[in-house]
Amino acid sequence: MNDDRLTRRTILRVGTTVASAGVLAGCLEEAGTDSELDDSSDDESNGTDADEATEGDADADADDVADESDNGRNEYEAAPGEEIVFYGDQAYWEGKEPRDIEGKANPTLVLEEGKAYTIGWDEGDGVAHNIELRDEDDAVVDDYATDITDDPGDDQFIEFEATEELATYVCAPHAAIMRGEIRIE
Fold first, then answer.
1. Same domain, yes or no: 31 and 98
2. Cα angle at 56 between 51 and 61, to 5 degrees?
3. Phi, psi of 137 (to 5 degrees)
């Protein structure tokens, strides 16, 4: 009998081999990507470039943000009266201004109690965002919230006085990952 014909068993073996090779290639490519990221972490900003982020990077970015906020490298002490400007990316708030937060994801803002500040976003990734100031119970403080929009402008900025109630700045549609800490001193 001629064994040159394809059997179900042969097709399964070939399919398994091809799938295994694909997984292995993906692992090797991922390993290369990780080492490239490690090399870039030596730059002064320790930030994330939104243009380089992909859909699959959102979870990794959120993990990186948690690591940064845990060790204080992602902290910014704002001067009273300062305007804090973000780029709205559905994976995180990316700092734009002042320069010290440029490129940083969800930086912790250290504010002086009783002083006035402005916070907001002036451009984004085309997805709808807003910005809210919330307390420790995740409730909006003193109606400090903008409307949800995919076209930011002057109406996406909040002028506020720093009080002990403030704990976070948040994008309501992406509250799990577009969230930064506010510390009052």
1. no
2. 65
3. -90, 5
Distance (Å, whole) CA 155 – CA 158: 8
The CATH number linked to 64 is 2.60.40.420
Over residues 119-164, the pLDDT tens digits come to 999 999 999 999 999 999 999 999 999 999 998 877 899 999 999 9
What burial letters (b/e) apply to 52-67, b meaning 16+ CB within 10 Å? ebeeeebebbbebbee
Q: How confident is the model at residue 71 (pLDDT cuts 50, 70, 90)?
A: very low
Is the whole model's pTM more than 0.85, yes or no?
Answer: no
Mean pLDDT of 179-183: 98
Q: Where are the alpha helices (DSSP H) in 41-164?
A: 58-71
Record the tokens describing residue 82, joined without a space: 């300062």
Contacts of 145 (CB under 8 A, 6+ apart): 130, 131, 132, 133, 158, 172
User: How many structural domains are present in the chain?
Assistant: 2
